[in-house]
């Protein structure tokens, strides 16, 4: 099997990685954010077309206020930087999650970044912010229902495709492969509809230490797997 066209990563372990070095959790988030740029370049070099990363979940608001503030500020800084570099890198950006729950400042940064990078043809980086799969599906069911009723049809006429097209990931191919770093082996409310047939890979390596070599190791495991879609 060849390199995945669409890859998803749950970037986990920033806090534990920092703590192991006697540093505050926020230091781990800073190094973790820097690592995103490196992994994007590596993905592009490998021929991956879509990378979807989990940056902040709908549950992450329950973290201490100072940590949430740091994460939001790092995200805003990172996305502003991308506005400047996306044309050079030919990268397209798309943010998934409930944007209405984010600050006006972050919402503005996001819409500028999506506008300016929208026609780029290189790697598409999909960033999940204030994202939860259950919340996304709830919003998608409402959207699909409104659409079907506006077409003069009935709710029971909704197809799987209608739901797929009402999700935040509309237009993004389902991930072929999903990586979670730092030892946890769960989905934590990430892309539950879209990962139905993806291959999973778990590693003990924390996100800030997950480098190009680790990515290549993961991809080689993927290449040796036999994917099935319910057939033989
Ligand atoms: C991942 O690292 C980043 C976010 C969830 C925002 P964590 O912050 O979850 O780090 P650990 O898992 O506590 O070590
Ligand atoms: C999942 O990681 C969310 C992100 C990576 C953004 P968490 O660290 O928040 O997940 P749990 O709490 O361990 O399930
Ligand atoms: Mg974690």
List strands and helices in order, with pairings.
Blueprint lengths: L5 E5 L3 H6 L5 H22 L3 E8 L7 H25 L2 E5 L7 H14 L6 E8 L1 H18 L9 H7 L10 E4 L18 E4 L9 H12 L9
Parallel strand pairs: 1-2, 1-5, 2-4, 3-4, 5-6
One 3-methylbut-3-enyl trihydrogen diphosphate binds next to helix 1.
Q: What would you say about this model in short?
A:
The protein has 232 residues and is of the alpha/beta class. It has seven helices and six strands.
Please tell me about this protein's structure.
With 232 residues, the chain is of the alpha/beta class. The protein has a 6-stranded parallel sheet with strand order 3-4-2-1-5-6, sandwiched between helices. Helix 4 links the parallel strand 3 and strand 4. Helix 2 runs parallel beside helix 3 and helix 3 runs parallel beside helix 4. It binds 3-methylbut-3-enyl trihydrogen diphosphate (2 copies) and magnesium ion. The site of one 3-methylbut-3-enyl trihydrogen diphosphate has 11 residues, from helix 1.
Bound molecules: 3-methylbut-3-enyl trihydrogen diphosphate, magnesium ion
**Name of the level-1 CATH class:** Alpha Beta
Strand order of the largest sheet: 3-4-2-1-5-6
Quaternary state reads single chain
Overall, the morphology is globular
What is the CATH-assigned architecture? 3-Layer(aba) Sandwich
List low-pLDDT spans. Answer: none
Structural class: alpha/beta
Helical content band: 40-55%
Order of helices and strands: EHHEHEHEHHEEH
Sheet-strand content, in percent, reads 5-15%
In DSSP terms, counting alpha (H) and pi (I) runs of 4 or more, how many helices?
7
Quantity of strands, as a count: 6
Whole-number count of domains: 1
How confident overall, as mean pLDDT? 98
In CATH, the topology is named Undecaprenyl pyrophosphate synthetase
- Radius of gyration using CA atoms only: 18 Å
